[in-house]
């Protein structure tokens, strides 16, 4: 990034600049066009209005990458470095404020960030390293959850039908995985699974659901501190015994959003890329290269389109503007992926294979669960295209409903027409998929376990349709 460019000009402070809203029809329906318009008018950084608060939106790929890597230690995630916040000029009811006040590792810097990330890295290691028994068991569970959802989705419709792959598959699946990772295996598991949905869905009862979930996660963390189990809280507590119960609770509460919301969005995004017209993603799936299709989807439509706020500790000149110390800055991953400096001059809506994307961040705050998120999405998408011989959009792509959010870009629904293929069993832990048809439980206990899972899945999806 050029911190001292001759193009920079004197201009009023951010609060006095003319800004255009981030949340608008073009941003939701035609984001590539929206970012190109900003780029033409402002260059690599633009002043925008985010739900009533003026913020710098960084849209240039080199600038986004430089800020993420932060080689000069300029950028902070701490609220006390936001000048307008410390001066009391940010509305108390600003919708993004609760997330900003979470006080977890996303909003930490320096030694505190390293300490908390270390706990995450060690805690996730058994579930992310392919050779570990926990990772093999988790992959098997992911396949089972996926198959159960697809089985229930197709019940009553015969071999062909219509479904909403967002509500009936892509969003519930990661929440079921979150439930398992957190260790919610007692009688409350079903209720907590519904609370995860209420929280991610941001409905009218989200606040009550958040309170119940927070209390449940706190109970798990307190137990993990004294009697660590073979789950994520247990492994994190064992890896970082100096973490307090409150610190561990704040960190683990992020699992619902980081796995539940991010992975659900990436699953729908990948399916849309495959069946919505991108030949590269479709060819990747046809060749069995599911992970490449996931990579292309993360590049074309990153789930977290814009990252949470950062604040420079000193004035930074960028393009034609000077970002003053303490100004709020949002990094637009989606815009950076469309920057000609990244695309090599291809059209903004062009999709090509590249592993230089920043959908999982970079630098000190890079996503520590990238491998897990990729595994979840790869298995989820792979099982879909194993179980269905045909998936076709039930609406034209430009009529699909998108969720309005300054951070996430996700579909509200993904309606499809489908035809079921001949069933293939989920792979046994550590083994390849068995091309059998259809899967029959080998023992009475397995039959009971399968029916219990299917019963829970039916109740979950039934509740979602009602809610």
From TrEMBL:
Gene3D superfamilies: Cytochrome P450 (1.10.630.10). The lineage of its organism: Bacteria, Bacillati, Actinomycetota, Actinomycetes, Streptosporangiales. The keyword Lipid metabolism does not apply. It comes from Actinomadura keratinilytica. It comes from the Bacteria. This is Cytochrome P450. Keywords: Heme, Iron, Metal-binding, Monooxygenase, Oxidoreductase. Belongs to the cytochrome P450 family. Residues 427-440 have a biased composition (Low complexity). Residues 427-452 are annotated as: Disordered. Pfam families: p450.
